[in-house]
Amino acid sequence: MTEPEETLISVDPDSQRRLREKGLDYRIADMAVDADAEGFLRADSRGFLDEDPTDAELAQMRETMRARRNIGVYDPAAGSWPIATVNSWVTPLSLPGGEVDMWAISSVTVAGTHRRRGIARNLLEGELRAAAGAGVAVAGLTASEATIYGRYGFGSAVPVMRFTVDTARAGWRGSDAPSTGRLVYADKQTLATDLEQLHEASRARRSGQVAGWRGRWQRMAGLAEGDKEAAAVRGVRFTDADGAVQGAMAYTLAELPGVFRSELRIRSIITTSDEALREIWRFVVQHDLVTRARVDLRPVDDPLPWLVSDQRAVTAEVHDHGWLRVLDVDAALTARTYSAPLDIVLRVDDPLGFAAGDWRVTVDERGRCRITATSDSPEVTLGVVELSAIYAGGVPAAQLAAAGRIHGDADAVSALSRAFLTTPSPVLGIWY
Ligand SMILES: CC(C)(COP(=O)(O)OP(=O)(O)OC[C@H]1O[C@@H](n2cnc3c(N)ncnc32)[C@H](O)[C@@H]1OP(=O)(O)O)[C@@H](O)C(=O)NCCC(=O)NCCS
After folding, report:
1. Does domain 5-136 have CATH number 3.40.50.12230?
2. CA distance linking residue 365 with residue 345, whole number of Å
3. Which protein residues touch ligand 1 with a CB less than 6 Å away?
4. Which of 26, 108, 125, 432 should be mutated for ligand 1, with most atoms under 8 A from CB?
5. Could you name the CATH architecture of 160-318?
6. Taking each helix axis from N to C terminus, what angle separates 13-21 and 119-133, rounded to the nearest 10 degrees?
7. Global pTM?
8. Fewer CB under 10 Å: which end of the chain, C or N?
């Protein structure tokens, strides 16, 4: 396997120096070296409060991490495992009308024995400087807690929907006409391949998505080592009249105590056509012996509430999921198209400096954008957190203005809001 370019980028010298002053060694953990790989992966699992991985799990995790730039922080007084971990890789982020390279950040952990000494701050700032140095315009992550990453300039940009469906009550309101395609069960290997291919085929259709990787789909399909629910994983796939796969769902069924009924827990639904999604939802809502279904990471405009007779049987919770951080205003904003013309001067505040400045944003009739640094007076002022939040088109600028987080003339804010919002709603269907 060839080393991806980003794994070769050396570690950030500022973070290295600051951590060295604390007696810590901040360096690449090389997945080709057994001791580095094992220490990094065991520390990563410990950091996320997981059980210590088995050898088979370690081998599978190592395959995934080989494609990433892994960094460990080592304390000579604390054994051979790193006391903090982080990794990153460059992946396409889908945007309205295009995509941009994104610096994905994951495996952020600091050992419980070393918490609150500024180690995470050095990890995160080191990643942002490395990304900017490599010319990557945007960084992204998914977060275990919503309170951690705003301080580094990340905004909650891709909200998603969690549904809980009372299937006994919902009733099917969608069409009863026979489908032109077929829904059939799929074995786990087929399921993993379907999910992978469908994600690749569909991710450009909505802003906010990133590329997946083999290990992600194996986990969804119940093929990951150490998955305690692996035996319970089932899959269905939808094929059209020509036999082309247009949708797949991975799920488990868990028996509810004492009632002879089960809960259907959806791990993933990925579709490339409306019909495939409707047929999968029909399968869920009408499933015999099931009284409840749960799913997360759905787009906020998922049609489910309009496919059932009783909308109150569908509990929908919107929550933060995809977090983005603009590093290069020009490269980031010109990588997408916009929903309405715009001519506005934005002042962007960024305590870390990357995106700070006064920028004239001009969007033409075709939705294409031009950015120029300007000395004209700003009409709208916002922080990099807020710019990053509205960037993918899933969060209205007007909502942030109402919260007192974007300031400016009401007409200018509303023009900004109209231009940045996008349809269909952005989504991010995986954790990374
Ligand atoms: C979250 C975690 C990485 C923080 O590491 P840390 O080294 O203790 O953090 P730092 O000392 O660098 O603190 C940096 C800042 O984040 C804040 N912070 C740290 N952990 C936080 C948390 N869990 N929630 C909210 N704020 C947090 C600190 O108060 C500090 O704020 P300040 O800079 O404004 O003073 C660590 O607690 C951890 O490993 N948790 C378990 C794994 C996890 O949740 N990782 C995140 C994956 S998305």
Report:
1. no
2. 18
3. 47-48, 108-110, 115-121, 143-145, 147-148, 151
4. 108
5. 3-Layer(aba) Sandwich (3.40)
6. 160
7. 0.96
8. N
